[in-house]
Amino acid sequence: MTGAGVPAGRGVTLAPAVQRPWHAIETEHTLLAVVSYAGGLREVEADRRRPAEPAARSWRAPPLLVELAESLTGPLQLLLVTVAVLSAVWGELRDAIAIAAIIAAVAGVETATELRAKRALAGLRQLAAPTARVLRDAHLVDRPTGALVVGDVVVLEPGDRVPADCRVLAAAGLAADESALTGEAAAVAKGPGAVAADAPLAARSSMLYAGTLIVAGQGRGLVVAAGPDSELGRLGRLVAGEREPATPLQRAMAELARALLAVAVAASVAVPLVGVARGQPLRQMLLAGLTLAFATIPEELPILVSVLLGVGGRRLARRGALLRRLRAAETLGAVTVVVTDKTGTLTENHLRLAHVDGKRGTVLRGARATQPHRATDRTRVADAVETALTSAAEEAGVTVAGVEAAVFPFDPQRRRMSRAWRTGTGVLVAAKGAPEAILAVCDLPERQRSQLGERVEELAGQGLRVLAVAQGRPASVPATAEQAEQELSFVGLLGFADPLRGGVGDAVATLTGAGVTTVVVTGDHPRTALAVARQAGLAGKRVLEGGAPLAGMDDQTLLDRLRADRVVARATPEDKLRIVRALQAAGEVVAVTGDGINDAPALAAADVGIAMGRRGTDLAREAADLVLTDDAYPTVAAAVEGGRTLGSQLRRAVAFYLGAKLGLVASMLVPLALGLPAPFSPAQIVLLELFMDLGASVAFVAEPAAPGMMRRPPRDPARRFLDQAELGAIGITGLALFLAVTSGYLLVCWHAGPVQASAAALVTWLAAHSGVAWMLRARPALSPAANPAFLLWAVTATLTGVAMAGTAIGRAVGLAGLAATWWPVVALAVAVAVGLAAAGRRASAAGRAL
After folding, report:
1. What pTM did the predictor assign?
2. How far apart are the first and last CA of the chain?
3. Tens digits of per-residue pLDDT, 804-815?
4. Residue 125 vs residues 34, 121, 129, 706: alpha-carbon distances, Å
5. How many CB atoms sit inside 10 A of residue 432's CB?
6. Does 575 participate in catalysis according to the annotation?
7. Which of 345, 337, 343 is CA-nearest to residue 606?
8. Which of 259, 351, 448, 588 is most buried, most CB within 10 Å of its CB?
9. What DSSP string runs through 129-162?
10. Cα-only R_g, the chain
11. Which range among 113-127, 248-262, 649-663, 688-702 has the greatest average pLDDT?
12. Which segments of 614-757 are extended strands (E)?
């Protein structure tokens, strides 16, 4: 953070969060720069520095109204509003009220779904510390985090959430868990010593960052950036600057709205003109044109899509994936690249002792002697390495006999810690720390020192965090760390691993088999990142490093490296954001998984952001479209499969619905053009559309996944939602229904009159459209038991048609009983429709393409 602007969002440049490299400035100079003192600010000075509250806050719409407005401004909803207004103006008040009710229902369903998801996530808010312990007037007091100002001095101990970005003033064994910010699984030692100005975030040992967690030691920190100016606040602005891309479904709905508006207007104008030209009464033709417009506009399509996405969302929730935004469900099935974090996503973010070089008992006893006599309480916040070491020592039954005599805590400069004990045989000093730091104070031949260095590199190449253990026997208790840590005897090496989560390898293999590429982007060390990637089944020989090396690449070079190596280490949040954008610009549909603060900008920019629900930070969850309630990476593969199934069901349902609409409009238009009455009245159209909706939603959404769904590539992102296969299915459905209904209607009308013809048309439609839908299924020969809803809908639709046309029930919608003479005609027309649909399916292979 040297003052350079940070790109945030498309076309927006943020002011830097911090204007100076505080980590590189000595503490006394930092205090001078912020005009503060080691004992903290005076209360009156803190009040003076606090920004004044505005006299009157600008009004903000409640979340309910915001969500409601968003759901009402979709293209189809605006189209329906227009039709409702026109209906009221033209005297069809009943239809206007019905359409308004549909609009309200759609908006209510979408708004309730969005707000329910937000309320479910609101309970997970635990990122920021509610209060902080601050030195004011040389006294330690509690103050709300939001009341901190630059220059405050905060006191920190294990379990504290860092309330603001702080320059370390004093530290005693201070360590922080920064995994949510940097991706490093192990705790980071902190101390007051300045570090290089160009040190990456993970190496700034003189800084503590807002939202991170103190896991060991005590310390004091000088607030240099608070609230929106902190590193956390800067990432929050990056998230706010991102706008999620429109999904294929949203683009298709907008395109459909424009096309159907043109068709509806043309039909409502053309029909009256043709009818009047054929000698029909003007008012009757105007009403016919309006009825045809109602039949053309898919007013139920938003409800249909909401039902499909809602049911699909519930299915995903049962598999451990909570949809925060319903529209992301359909995008899941089109994902081509998953950009995943490592720590806490692929791995458990929980270190375990995985390897010991040397005699296990001796090494563990030496390492255990660097800890307090009482074991670390693992139910509380603790350094991950110390917790893992304590667990391993307890399992091995290792104890330390003696009385603690002196403690020399770990600090970033020495990179080691030691502890002196009085034992029955004298004084024992035990030390552990970074291998190079321990080897530097061991009495070893140069050859052995070199061999141990090579062994450390070998273990580090396996992704292990390596510590060395040594011990000494001074004549008396040492007074300083320098006296304690000299001419020690080398004891052994400890290797700690952050293990893969269960099922990660299988999940990566499943995604690879489905044509979905996995790219690991982490802030962790390159060797660790590569080792974990290989364990997960991602082969690669090189690691692309973030920061300056990545910044020096153009987008094409970056894409080539990503496709070849698929692992990026030492990545900053900006690096991850750039990777997502570069992949999207290359035509990929990108899902991003993560749990940390540093993942949030990329989660917001992704086509589908997937956050961990249990370990994930609040900022990551808020930025995501999907939250994994079980934190299991295999759920990502399950979600992609669920998204593909949902996408397939959605395309089939929309194809059937629009094809049926097309058939209905054509069946209305041709008789009117011939000077005959419309085959269906408005009330009858309502009945037909009721079953069309049920067929397209309840029946199709209950379909099981097609076999091999995850053994073929994802649907090409460049393909339009209404592509050739979809249009072919629409055409097959529309043509089959049009020929069946129109031929039957015309034949009966010419011989028995329009009343009998309407009855024949209605029963033909209800029976034929369920049969055509059956042919449009992924597997028409599937056992009815696999989807009983489909069979129930088809049987109910057919029986309803028979009851309406064959009994007095039909009088409620203006029908007369159909004479027995015409029932064979109806049966033949239905058979022709189903046969045409089956033949069209085989000819176009639409069933496989959808």
Report:
1. 0.67
2. 50
3. 888 888 777 677
4. 31, 7, 10, 39
5. 29
6. no
7. 337
8. 351
9. -SEEEEEETTEEEEEEGGG--TT-EEEE-TTPBP
10. 35
11. 649-663
12. 626-628
